[in-house]
Amino acid sequence: MTAFQQLCYDALEQYVPAGSVITYKGLAKLINHPNAYRAVGSAMNKNPFAPRIPCHRVVKSNGDLGAYAFGLALKQKRLQKEGVQVFNNKIVNFDEICV
């Protein structure tokens, strides 16, 4: 695992609680690499600690679920188990729960 990936996982675990989401861009800003949102996506895709490190909580800036290495159905299921409402692969109350 790279230092960048570890930085992503640590920030995600520390700052995005269950029932919340963060965007790829938001996580990039959080780790002080504001233009590295694609690299954040790549790190989430390679997360060896899922679901303990909750990469399912990282979504697109428009509230769409985005991708998930284990499939969108499982991403949606994990989010809904945490109380996040999803409809048509989009976070329902995105502005309210986005960190």
Describe the model.
- There is one protein chain.
- The chain has 99 residues and is mainly alpha-helical.
- The chain has a single domain, classed as Winged helix-like DNA-binding domain superfamily/Winged helix DNA-binding domain (Arc Repressor Mutant, subunit A, Orthogonal Bundle), CATH 1.10.10.10.
- Helix content is 43%, strand content 8%.
- It has 5 helices and 4 strands.
- Strands 1-2 form a two-stranded parallel ribbon. A two-stranded antiparallel ribbon has the order 3-4.
- β3 and β4 form a beta hairpin.
- The mean pLDDT is 97.
Question: Brief overview, please?
Answer:
By secondary structure, this protein is mostly helical. 43% of the residues lie in helices and 8% in strands. The protein has a single domain (3-97), classed as Arc Repressor Mutant, subunit A.
